[in-house]
Design goal:
By secondary structure, this protein is α+β, with helices and mostly antiparallel strands. The chain contains six helices and six strands. The chain has a domain of 60 residues: Head domain of nucleotide exchange factor GrpE (Nucleotide Exchange Factor Grpe, Chain A, domain 2, Roll), CATH 2.30.22.10.
């Protein structure tokens, strides 16, 4: 008898129940990363008994404390270097900002010093009522720009004289003041903040009490006369003269007559 032919429907049903068969032919195990031995049989991987590989020996553990200490030392060193660099950068930035501000102030002062003579002319024209028209507008604009950059005028009549900010050109004495006083402002002073660009040129007056009084003349001592001595030789001529006057009644009778000599 011949063998019965397999039923294709039945085989297909069994295949669907069993599912597809997957064969892993990779030489390296993706889980253990070890080389696989070649399989002689082509049986499914699920049906083959799992072979247990011997566990690999654990590597020796290094000294963790020494490694941690070394890492901490390196971290502290890098942190110190970073802090030093940051401090140097901050100091450099401050120095650059200070130098920049100083250079800016010096430049502004140099330009404003050149405008002082112009401001003096504007002030003189205003005092003589010659500031009018377009010249007045230009003068006011110059004063506005100079004040924008911090230029200030100082010096008023009646201010106490200060040699640090005033320059005395005239000197006089006056009543009703307590000390050296600026009685007239010849040219105002200019400054930027605390820096004096030009001192105020003023006339200074002092009270009358501060005027130097002349010293009184001292009387010259009289020369000492010698006292007469009794019995001196000088008394004899005087006594003889007195006796001769008493006898003749005329002073000078003892003198010889000039006419008698001529005879």
């Amino acid at each position: 008898m011949s063998a019965p032919e397999p039923d294709p429907r039945r085989a297909e049903a069994e295949f669907e129940q069993r599912g597809p068969t997957v064969r892993d032919r990779r030489r390296i195990d993706p889980e253990t990363y070890q080389v696989r031995e070649p399989q002689e049989t082509a049986a499914p991987a699920a049906a083959a008994p799992e072979s247990k590989t011997p566990e690999s020996e654990t590597p020796p553990v290094p000294d963790l404390e020494a490694e941690v200490k070394e890492l901490q030392d390196k971290l502290a060193e890098r942190t110190s270097d970073l802090q030093r660099l940051q401090a140097e950068y901050v100091n450099y930035k401050r120095r650059v900002d200070r130098d920049r501000d100083l250079a800016r102030k010096v430049s502004i002062e140099g330009v404003l010093k050149d405008f002082l003579s112009v401001l003096d002319d504007v002030r003189s024209a205003r005092e003589h009522e010659e500031l009018s028209g377009g010249f007045k507008a230009v003068a006011e604009e110059i004063e506005r720009v100079t004040s924008k950059y911090g230029l200030e005028t100082f010096g008023e009549a009646g201010d106490p004289f200060n040699p640090h900010i005033h320059e005395a050109l005239l000197h006089a004495h006056a009543d009703g003041i307590n000390g050296p006083t600026c009685v007239e402002i010849l040219q105002p002073g200019y400054r930027i903040g605390d820096r004096i660009l030009r001192p105020a040129r003023v006339a200074v007056a002092e009270p009358e009490l501060m005027r130097a009084e002349p010293e009184p003349m001292r009387p010259e001592p009289e020369p000492m006369r010698p006292e007469p001595v009794e019995g001196s030789v000088d008394e004899a001529p005087s006594e003889s003269a007195e006796k001769l006057v008493e006898a003749t009644g005329e002073p000078g009778a003892d003198k010889p007559d000039a006419d008698a000599d001529q005879r």
